[in-house]
Specification:
It is built from 10 helices and no strands. With about 200 residues, the protein is mainly α. Helix 3 crosses helix 4. The N and C termini lie far apart (about 50 Å).
Length: about 200
């Protein structure tokens, strides 16, 4: 590896620390391709539709770049997260936050992000393991729509029985902008809203 790069092995270890650090750097470089494709699609007025598009981009990136994808998600390390996976989590969290602001989450932001990530990475890794000619791309669509139906409402705060919860999630997401309240007041309201959304 060092010979191919034209440097001494100690130089690689000095820069990347160890083999895992080198692999993380490779994964991060590959993930930059994915981020460029996401940046090319600015947010629309419908955050749920943007989530659909984000899911499709995520799965598409994994199938087009299976080596990069498996470096990022193929070997989970409890308590550790590669820089690329951390950046991807921030992108997903921002998408989920927009849905919360719109009053369209039926679960907490944290739970929604975990569910979407688990389902998205799971279906992508499963499809990577299938020969391209045998892949059923409808599996991704079915999984995507199942997760969206689980974590989002059809329209903002319109479904019976979901009004209080989705309103609380939306208020919690927009609370930092409530400058009419003092910081202690926002903290107290945040605690109350967390009780509603985590019951």
């Amino acid at each position: 590896m060092s010979a191919a790069a034209g440097v001494q092995a100690p130089t690689i270890y000095r820069i990347f620390g160890d083999k895992r650090g080198l692999l993380d750097a490779v994964a991060e470089h590959g993930f930059a391709t994915y981020l460029v494709s996401k940046a090319a699609s600015p947010p629309s007025e419908d955050p749920v539709q943007d989530l659909r598009r984000g899911w499709d981009l995520h799965v598409g990136f994994g199938l087009a770049h299976p080596a990069f994808y498996t470096l990022i998600y193929g070997e989970p390390r409890p308590g550790l997260e590669s820089p690329a996976a951390r950046e991807a989590a921030l992108v997903l969290a921002a998408q989920v936050h927009r849905i919360a602001e719109a009053g369209r989450l039926r679960v907490s932001e944290e739970r929604a992000a975990h569910l979407i990530h688990a389902a998205g990475s799971g279906i992508t890794l499963s499809m990577i393991a299938i020969r391209p000619a045998q892949r059923d791309m409808e599996l991704s669509v079915i999984a995507r729509e199942s997760i969206i139906a689980t974590v989002t409402t059809g329209e903002p705060r319109t479904e019976p029985g979901n009004t209080l919860f989705s309103t609380a999630v939306a208020l919690r997401a927009t609370l930092p902008a409530a400058t009419a309240l003092t910081q202690p007041e926002r903290a107290l309201l945040s605690e109350w809203l967390d009780r509603i959304t985590h019951q």
